[in-house]
Amino acid sequence: MLCIDIGKFNEISDDIAAGDTVLREMGERIRSKLRAHDFAARRSIEEFAVALVDIGDLAEVMAFADRLIDALRRPINVADKEFVCTASVGIALAPSDGDNAAMLRHADIALTRAKADGGQRMRCFEPGMDKAAPAAADDRA
Description:
The chain is of the alpha+beta class. It has helices at residues 9-13, 16-33, 58-73, 100-116, 129-132, 135-140; strands at residues 2-7, 39-44, 47-51, 76-78, 81-83, 86-91, 122-124.
C-alpha cells in the first residue's frame, strides 16, 4: 500500500482551472503506472492511495514508487504555464504491516513521516512510527 502526497500543489490550486487540470493529470499518471490488477484512489485534495496486488518484495515496491515519482515530477503545461509537482510517498507492506485497514493507516503514517522529514521522499512504515505520528494522520486513515 502506498499513500502519495502531491507536493507544491498549493501553489497551483490558486488557479482553479489549472488545479483541476493538474489533479486529473496526476491521476492519469498514477493510473498509467498500475498493472491490470492494481488500483488507485484519491484520498483528499492532493493525496492518493495505491494498492499493489501480488507484488514480490520491497525492492519491487521501491522500483514502482521510483517510476511513479519520476512520472509525477514531469512538468505539466496548462494555459501556457508550466507546473512542476513533487511527491512524497508512505509505504506499508503485507503481511508485516497488517491487514488492509492497518496497511492504509500505516502507509499514511509513513507518508506523514516522509513529509515531516522534508518531503519529496519515500518512507516505509516501521514499528514505533505509529506512536510518534500526529493525531491528524490517524484521523485521515
